[in-house]
Write a structure and sequence with these properties.
The longest helix has 26 residues. This protein has a five-stranded parallel sheet with strand order 2-1-3-4-5, sandwiched between helices. The chain has a five-stranded mixed sheet with strand order 7-8-6-9-10, with helices on both faces. Helix 6 packs across helix 7. The protein has 25 helices and ten strands. The radius of gyration is 28 Å and the shape is globular. 58% of the residues lie in helices and 10% in strands.
Length: 535
């Protein structure tokens, strides 16, 4: 059945449309009658709808505003039919711009309704991938809401959307879990295409194993996972399938993955337990803090925050003198002292006796070292995000090709961090952001990226992103977009260039995308902006 929503502020029109034809006979079911666009939008955020008949003129939110919001925020892939008593081409043009299927004038007759329904049926039949496309759109919007949760910026509507679309998340607490490839070094030798194929293959196997719970798996969350990680949200009710806890559940999952393909050796980084999914950011940040721990000490399949971080904060078996010497060497960027201190640390750890005790002591000491190193960076700049600092260090060590584990790797790690601290000192003192601002305002039309600018000005990309956020309260991408749109607005008033030409001059090859961003920032289309400011 085609699920239909009728939206009109006139009750008699809603009732009239609902009885004008035999909807069931046409293969349709009216699932909602809404009095305005806002009521319809709230329903679409939580429910699946295939076709929307919406009036143009309504209080609170018009039909066009509803359509625009749904399309721009990718809330629903429903077919929209805009109904209006205004025979005005401007309204039809607006409706078509946001991919309305049809524009009908009131009063709507039975024949017109049936014709539109047939059009939808034909369109669904001609597009064999419509179900897959709808699922992709839903997954993309769900991922956007998960990203807001991870950033700690989700509003109630975003949290409600996640809870509704992951409806099996019920009883118990939650954990964010990163699923990584076991051998990162071998992955780094592979091409991007090979990594994508391996990651897709692992995702398919995990989805097959999870079955009905595969909606908990997120192969890629931009900005929150690296290219070797897959995100997974665990809750206690999921663990109850095996009548056990997260550790046993993931052990079972790892076993099933290896049975499916022995080439996959997953490693799980498990964030701390949180009591509600709205607090997922806390679990995510704690899981991310486990990334560097894979480089040192005991190699495991499952790292759990409470066991591998909190349990090691008591200082048992701590080689304080050796660690203080190593930290001092890093702070002074004294490579000789770093090497000798690492050797002294390993010798001291070996003195604890059995291999089990030595491994335990090494894990405790390296964990303590990591947290001390974080504080060194924070003392230089309070805006530093600790988790991103550790991500930076891990990436740098990996790029150098260091084998993971052992004193050689720790020396490379410590040397890399010493260089990083020196870089931070320079950035704090010379105001590198001013140089980058000039670069953007001069070359805004080029394909500027945070990564390229960070390389050019010898600034860590994560740190540079923090600087933009701190100064402008917006991301680098949004800052660049604002500069481009401001330049475009000036060109609209100073030149007679056509809009596609201006779009390309400020760095947008896609004119439609340019218009969308212009509307977001200026509140109207480029053409309307030019007309309003002609004087």
């Amino acid at each position: 059945m085609i699920r239909v929503m009728l939206v009109d502020d006139e009750p008699f029109i809603l009732e009239g449309l609902s009885v004008l034809i035999d909807w069931n006979e046409q293969g349709c079911q009216i699932v909602k009658k809404a009095a305005n666009g806002k009521e319809a939008l709230d329903y679409l955020l939580k429910n699946e709808v295939d076709m929307v008949f919406a009036d143009i003129k309504m209080p609170v939110m018009t039909g066009i505003e509803l359509l625009q919001t749904v399309r721009e925020e990718e809330i629903s892939n429903a077919y929209f039919v805009i109904v209006s008593g205004y025979n005005d081409f401007h309204y039809a043009q607006s409706a078509l711009r946001y991919s309305a299927l049809e524009y009908l004038l009131k009063p709507v007759g039975a024949d017109a309704l049936i014709r539109v329904i047939d059009k939808v049926k034909n369109k669904r039949e001609s597009d064999a991938n419509v179900t897959e496309v709808t699922a992709d759109v839903k997954k993309a919007y769900l991922t956007q809401n998960i990203m807001l949760l991870l950033a700690g910026k989700a509003k109630e509507k975003h949290t409600d959307y996640v809870k509704h679309n992951l409806h099996r998340y019920g009883a118990g607490d939650f954990r964010f879990v990163s699923i990584c490839f076991g051998n990162v070094d071998s992955m780094e030798e592979k091409s991007d295409e090979e990594i994508i194929r391996l990651k897709d293959g692992l995702c398919r196997k995990i989805r097959d194993i999870l079955g009905k719970n595969s909606d908990r798996l997120f192969p890629d969350i931009p900005g929150y996972t690296d290219e070797y990680e897959i995100s997974f949200i665990f809750s206690d009710d999921l663990g109850s399938e095996y009548e056990t806890d997260v550790h046993k559940y993931l052990e079972k999952l790892a076993e099933k993955i290896r049975e499916a393909d022995e080439n996959y050796r997953p490693v799980f980084l498990v964030g701390k337990r949180v009591e509600d999914i709205s607090r997922l950011s806390r679990s995510y940040s704690s899981a991310a803090s486990l990334r560097p721990f894979r480089s040192f000490g005991e190699k495991k399949t499952i790292y759990i925050y409470e066991e591998d971080v909190q349990a090691n904060e008591g200082g048992v078996l701590l080689c304080k003198d050796e660690l203080d010497s190593l930290i001092s060497g890093i702070e002074l960027n004294d490579k000789d002292r770093i090497c000798s201190s690492v050797d002294a640390l390993y010798d001291a750890v070996a003195g604890f006796g059995s291999s089990i005790m030595s491994d335990r002591a090494l894990s405790i000491n390296t964990n303590y070292l990591l947290f001390r190193l974080l504080h060194l960076a924070v003392e230089l700049d309070e805006s530093i995000n600790q988790e991103e600092v550790m991500t930076y260090i891990s990436e740098n060590v990996s790029e150098e090709g260091a084998s993971r584990g052992g004193r050689t790797h720790l020396k490379k790690f410590a040397g890399s961090y010493a260089d990083y601290l020196g870089q931070l000192r320079k950035n704090v003192s010379r105001g590198v952001l001013q140089d980058i601002e000039k670069e953007i305002k001069t070359n805004f039309a080029e394909n500027l990226t945070l990564k390229d600018l960070s390389r050019k000005y010898y600034v860590n990309s994560s740190y540079l992103g923090q600087l933009f956020k701190k100064k402008y309260d917006q991301s680098f991408k949004d800052y660049l977009c604002a500069v481009r749109i401001d330049e475009a607005a000036a060109m609209l008033l100073k030149t007679a260039d056509k809009i596609p030409v201006i779009a390309e001059k400020v760095g947008y090859k896609d004119t439609d995308y340019f218009i969308t961003k212009f509307i977001e920032l200026k509140g109207c289309t480029p053409a309307k902006y030019r007309k309003q400011n002609e004087g």
